[in-house]
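Example 359.
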Amino acid sequence: MPYSTITGIGHYVPKNVVTNQDLTKVMETSDEWIRERTGIEERRYITKGKETTSTLAMEASLKAIADAGIDKEDIDLIIFATLSPDYYFPGAGVLLQRELGITKTEIAALDIRAQCSGFVYGLTTADAYIKSGMAKKILLVGAEVHSVGLDFTTRGRNVSVIFGDGAGAVIVEATEDKSVAIQATSIHSDGTYAEKLSYMYPGAHGGYFIEKYAIEGFDVDYGNPEYGGYFFNQDMIDQNRLYPHMEGQAVFKMAVRKFPEVIMETLAKAGMDVSDLDMLIPHQANLRINQFVAKTMRLNKDQVYNNIMRYGNTTAASIPIALSEARDEGKVKKGDNVVLAAFGAGFTWGAVVLKWGRD
Ligand code: UT7
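Predicted structure in complex with oxa(dethia)-CoA:
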């Protein structure tokens, strides 16, 4: 059975820098609050109408394809992780195929909807496709455009100040050489917490889960369910429901528990322990979460890569952007034991242990 290896990587962030100070012009917040609670100093936003999730993904993909030295026509599977796709359907994977100008149809494109864990879920999926022999050259992308879907009034400030736009991509190929390959993966979910971090409207639930689980504060008027209005209606707009919802403290508490757990689980599967770890690249949700995890696991500063200060939380894109930057800065070197770990909406979480195989 072959192993999977990352042969190329690249990232792309839009040029518009939005500082914490900029956000104070539209909502009641402060640079101090945002830095203290999250570590974020600035983030990037797209140019509206000119960039989209799949165009950011295309820019990152072109870099990854060039880095791997492959022909884009050789890609046989596109895996696209995002919670902010261009369209509700079709998925972002086919739009990326079109943006890349890949016209052959001996290719498949699938979207992964595991939010902050999207890249780890995607890499685990890529690994399974490679191991089963069902794919040989996979383009895996994590890309998000949050800036067009946030509530920039004071009401939405607990969510809006955190998120940013960006994309990261890798090429995953088969190899016989285990010393440059993915060593172990773990992915988990717990749907009990589905609404704690969610974007429920528009959607097909029609209030069913809200009643079934007695979820407070989400009711809208669905009109007559027999005649539409169920998925999307005026009341959702009037009630300001078309924004993400996050119970920040609940997410934070679970994240700081699950990160160390899943990292240890995956290291153990790979036959390693914390002392073998050269670099941890955690999802960039909050610098305080990552510092907490580092402290719990007794990792020193050089063993954890963080760039949330500059990009905010780019959800499915955060790990590939961070991995790409860490490689560019020489902080991830050939032969290093690298751990990627994520936790987020769902709740979903997971980790990948790999030996970095590129210069
Ligand atoms: O990637 C997806 C996974 N997401 C995460 O992992 C996020 C995990 N959670 C967090 O990072 C933190 O919970 C947040 C950074 C989102 C929020 O920090 P917090 O310390 O949990 O704040 P809070 O929501 O409990 O709010 C504390 C206070 C409230 O004011 P009162 O009620 O104490 O007067 C908020 O209204 O801070 C207020 N607040 C703000 N103030 C200024 C909330 N957001 C802001 C803001 N600026 N942007």
